[in-house]
């Protein structure tokens, strides 16, 4: 524990926080907890729901506050979202043109930053990017009282995102926040080229952080009666697409069980009848529950992104439960390797290099090192 001389006041602003399990919520949650464990004064602002944070705050010695009542960007940290006919109509009309409904963050955040005095480190976490824009607006309006160091953390690029095109005028918003921020943090070196050249000297590589302690696992793994493997996470058409793989599985005559943890059923529903009880779709569960279930699998499936933006956070969880990883792409299949895995031969399994770089203890220290 630090003494008062080493104690820093840290402000984290994000869209969603625990108990949400999205990658950005996990980023904010693990980082805030670890910074508090290291003795710092941590306050988190997010769109909260009905979850009671009293025990959470007491356990981890930090503060969790609500960004405020959202009129449009209503998706909150306990998963509730208002989606009435008016919301859907406004989304259809203005989502691409105005970053609706997330543009609301831009006007909410300056008041929050102004209310928090003597902040040593501000960490804003995107997506959504209007969170960064709100911080830039705050710095433009109240530069004298602005936090000592501002780190804009980005999971994916914005204007140069290959799979999500934005109107040209948003480049001025990206350049605006990039100029105002002291540092821009990204999870992988592969993503640096997707940011404007004039700001790349501000970019620091800080991977997604994970708690390596007390990893839940099934005791004494036992091989399943039939090859049983799992995938956990989201699917994206032509990006992280399971269609080619599932189509191949339909041709496999031997028994197997493919368990999928996802909320994105669109791309896998066409295969439900064809695969029958060989395919099992499960809803998201808590990370502890998921790790326990993954550790019972014979192997785990990783579908590589069709870009250079780094590895999904679930891939690190795969490594932590120490089950063999089968890596495939959306647009081509390593048929020989797939058959090897189905036969219990894992000689071509995928390994995560330098796993300790993802330890949340190391990640938190990298953020702290950026304080001016």
Question: Could you give a short description of this structure?
Answer:
The chain is α/β, with parallel strands linked by helices and 372 residues long.
Class derived from helix and strand content: alpha/beta
Q: What is the first-to-last residue Cα distance? A: 21 Å
Tell me the total number of β-strands. 12
Shape: globular
Strand content: 15-25%
- SSE succession: EHEHEHHEHEHEEEHEHEHEHEHH
Adjacency order of strands in the biggest sheet: 3-2-1-4-5-6-7
Q: Helix coverage percent of residues?
A: 25-40%
* Integer-rounded radius of gyration: 22 Å
Question: How would you sum up the major sheet?
Answer: 7 strands, parallel
The pLDDT mean sits at 92
Q: What's the helix count? A: 12
Instruction: List low-confidence stretches.
Output: none
What would you say this structure looks like, in words?
With 372 residues, the chain is of the alpha/beta class. The chain contains twelve helices and twelve strands. The strands form two sheets. Strands 3-2-1-4-5-6-7 form a seven-stranded parallel β-sheet, with helices on both faces. The protein has a five-stranded parallel β-sheet with strand order 10-9-8-11-12, sandwiched between helices. β8, α7 and β9 form a beta-alpha-beta unit. The model has no long low-confidence stretch (mean pLDDT 92).
């Amino acid at each position: 524990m630090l003494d008062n001389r080493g104690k820093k006041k840290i402000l984290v602003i994000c869209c969603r926080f625990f108990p949400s399990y999205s990658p950005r919520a996990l980023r904010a949650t693990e980082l805030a907890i670890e910074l508090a464990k290291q003795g710092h004064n941590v306050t988190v602002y997010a769109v909260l729901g009905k979850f009671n944070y009293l025990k959470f705050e007491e356990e981890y010695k930090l503060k969790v506050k609500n960004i405020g009542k959202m009129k449009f960007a209503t998706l909150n940290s306990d998963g509730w979202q208002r989606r009435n006919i008016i919301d859907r109509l406004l989304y259809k009309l203005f989502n691409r043109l105005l970053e609706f409904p997330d543009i609301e963050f831009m006007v909410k955040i300056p008041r929050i930053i102004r209310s928090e005095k003597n902040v040593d480190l501000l960490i804003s976490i995107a997506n959504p990017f209007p969170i960064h824009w709100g911080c830039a607006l705050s710095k433009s309006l109240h530069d004298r009282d602005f936090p000592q160091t501002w780190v804009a953390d980005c999971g994916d690029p914005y204007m140069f995102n290959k799979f999500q095109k934005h109107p040209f005028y948003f480049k001025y918003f990206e350049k605006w926040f990039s100029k105002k921020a002291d540092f821009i943090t990204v999870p992988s070196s592969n993503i640096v080229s997707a940011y404007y050249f004039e700001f790349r000297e501000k970019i620091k590589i800080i991977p997604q952080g994970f708690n390596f302690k007390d990893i839940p696992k099934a005791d004494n793994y036992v091989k399943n009666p039939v090859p049983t493997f799992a995938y956990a996470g989201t699917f994206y058409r032509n990006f992280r697409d399971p269609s080619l793989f599932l189509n191949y599985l339909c041709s496999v005559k031997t028994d197997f069980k493919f368990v999928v943890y996802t909320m994105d059923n669109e791309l896998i529903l066409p295969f439900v009848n064809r695969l029958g009880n060989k395919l099992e779709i499960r809803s998201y569960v808590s990370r502890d529950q998921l790790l326990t279930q993954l550790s019972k699998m014979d192997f785990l499936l990783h579908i590589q992104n069709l870009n250079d933006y780094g590895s999904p956070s679930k891939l690190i969880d795969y490594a932590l439960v120490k089950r063999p990883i089968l890596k495939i792409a959306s647009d081509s299949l390593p048929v020989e390797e797939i058959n090897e895995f189905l036969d219990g031969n894992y000689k071509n399994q995928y390994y995560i290099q330098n796993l300790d770089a993802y330890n949340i203890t190391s990640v938190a220290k990298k953020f702290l090192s950026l304080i001016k």
